[in-house]
Amino acid sequence: MKIFVDYRERSVLDIIEDIFDSFELVNLPVGDFLITFDTYAVLVERKSASDFLNSLKSNRLWDQMRRMLAQEVMGHKIRRRALLIHGYMGDEISLSSFGWNHIMGAYMEIQYRYDIPIFHAEDDDALAEFFRILIKRETEGKNEGEFERKWMRIPPKRVMSDEEWKIYALSSLPYIGEKIAKALLEHFGSIEKIARANIVELKKVEGIGDKKARQIYRIFH
């Protein structure tokens, strides 16, 4: 993997240096970040909230989105694109002549007509997480193929025991996978007791911390 950063991103260069172990500062013909992998690349355009509004007002935004549709950049085939808006949009809207109706219309135009997904990073920490998660998902192949049926599990065609049905039912709920379902049933003995358990009691189950306990508690209460 190699990362190219447009030289005009100097305003966030300190942040970028913390995000990436190494990168090459170049004059990108389009976009601000070109993340290259073995056979393809991901192109990212970063805009501050104020820059997004200014480019929308001047209509420069639409030429930039059109150029983002390039099939190849610096010899790398583009497989995915993203528009990353960096900063809090609400404050900028209050200072402009635009309303949320203009913003939502622009978002839909970009996503539905240009097929470019939009991501918001309201602060520098969110910016770093965007790139970290993007690279992790690309490396693991999680941005490819069909979606996973995380909350709509299909029961097996074979006859299941009562215990297997309980595990199946629990693991079909948000935040509870099969491993956690088994641990819960082993600890409490029944779904009814799990549903009545408080956060402190849920945290006593192996593998369940405070955040997970609160998520499970909210399912039943």
TrEMBL record:
Residues 2-89 form the ERCC4 domain. It comes from the Archaea. GO terms for molecular function: damaged DNA binding; single-stranded DNA binding; single-stranded DNA endodeoxyribonuclease activity. SUPFAM superfamilies: Restriction endonuclease-like, RuvA domain 2-like. Keywords: DNA damage, DNA repair, DNA-binding, Endonuclease, Hydrolase, Nuclease. The keyword DNA-binding applies. Pfam families: ERCC4, HHH_5. SMART domains: ERCC4, HhH1. This is ERCC4 domain protein. It comes from Aciduliprofundum boonei (strain DSM 19572 / T469).
